[in-house]
């Protein structure tokens, strides 16, 4: 049972890796390792795949310490058991976000600063790819958050090359819903730590997450259908952008 579930789970990760050409021979991949369920699962999945797929790649884990107390030996021991190098980056992100800035949107700043610290470390280590633990629920939540809070239809990509740094970001778990990640953590008895941030559970993302959970109760296939919609999306089914045109016409009419 455990083995079959592992096989099924890894097949989904592998599918995303192949579909988006995420990993090539000789890649040196840092997993953004927060120690939460998602990144622990990602690290373990990539570790298992590194031993079974023909493509050869190196792995390391980088933890960005934001300033909250955390049980780091749990993470250190886990990485040691896999023989994956583990790096800790000390930052003052918690202080900057909650004391210095006191912004209305602490999550956006925190995420931006964590990303910056992570990329700097990856460059310093001489690695070329960054793997993040986003799963299908993150994709769906981000889609709705963009639309609701910023009026944009957009979602992050499973594979992104960043011109400025030369790094590539990959998200190998985009085909897997959150509940499967939770099941995998249980089945494999993976160690993880809870997110210590005081904003955890009180964010805009949390609001959207609850709405999606309600929708899923009424429409159980929602997550799978959402994924299909992204994969079969046709630009012609949306409206053309007429904003600049209508501004020009407004000007003409006034003349
Ligand atoms: N402090 C951190 N150090 C290193 N990588 C991080 C850190 N925080 C987040 N990441 C990376 O960014 C991804 C998305 O971040 P997010 O804050 O959404 O985490 P999450 O959904 O709570 O995931 P997790 O369960 O791994 O904590 C994580 O899965 C992880 O790969």
TrEMBL record:
Signal peptide: none annotated. ATP binds at residues 32-34, 38, 64, 133, 138. It comes from the Bacteria. Transmembrane segments: none annotated. InterPro entries: Rossmann-like_a/b/a_fold, TilS/TtcA_N, tRNA_thiolation_TtcA_Ctu1. The keyword ATP-binding applies. GO terms for molecular function: ATP binding; transferase activity. CDD domains: TtcA-like. Residues 29-200 form the tRNA(Ile)-lysidine/2-thiocytidine synthase N-terminal domain. Pfam families: ATP_bind_3. The keyword ATP-binding applies. SUPFAM superfamilies: Adenine nucleotide alpha hydrolases-like. GO terms for biological process: tRNA processing. Keywords: ATP-binding, Nucleotide-binding, Transferase. This is tRNA 2-thiocytidine(32) synthetase TtcA.
């Amino acid at each position: 049972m455990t083995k079959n579930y592992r096989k099924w789970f890894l097949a989904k990760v592998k599918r995303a890796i192949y579909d988006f050409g995420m990993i090539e021979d000789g890649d040196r991949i840092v997993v953004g390792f927060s120690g939460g369920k998602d990144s622990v699962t990602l690290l373990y999945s990539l570790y298992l795949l590194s031993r079974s797929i023909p493509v050869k790649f190196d792995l390391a884990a980088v933890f960005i310490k934001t300033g909250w107390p955390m049980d780091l030996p749990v993470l250190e021991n886990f990485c040691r058991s896999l023989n994956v190098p583990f790096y800790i980056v000390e930052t003052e992100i918690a202080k900057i976000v909650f004391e210095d800035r006191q912004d209305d949107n602490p999550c956006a700043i925190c995420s931006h600063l964590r990303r910056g610290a992570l990329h700097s470390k990856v460059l310093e280590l001489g690695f070329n790819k960054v793997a993040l633990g986003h799963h299908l629920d993150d994709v769906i939540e981000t889609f709705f958050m963009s639309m609701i809070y910023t009026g944009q239809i957009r979602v992050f990509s499973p594979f992104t090359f960043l011109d400025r740094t030369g790094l590539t970001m990959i998200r190998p778990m985009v085909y897997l819903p959150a509940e499967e990640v939770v099941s995998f953590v249980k089945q494999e008895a993976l160690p993880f730590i809870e997110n210590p941030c005081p904003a955890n559970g009180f964010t805009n993302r949390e609001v959207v997450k609850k709405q999606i959970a309600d929708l899923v109760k009424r429409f159980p296939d929602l997550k799978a259908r959402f994924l299909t919609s992204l994969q079969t999306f046709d630009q012609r089914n949306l409206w053309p952008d007429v904003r600049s045109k209508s501004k020009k016409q407004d000007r003409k009419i006034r003349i």
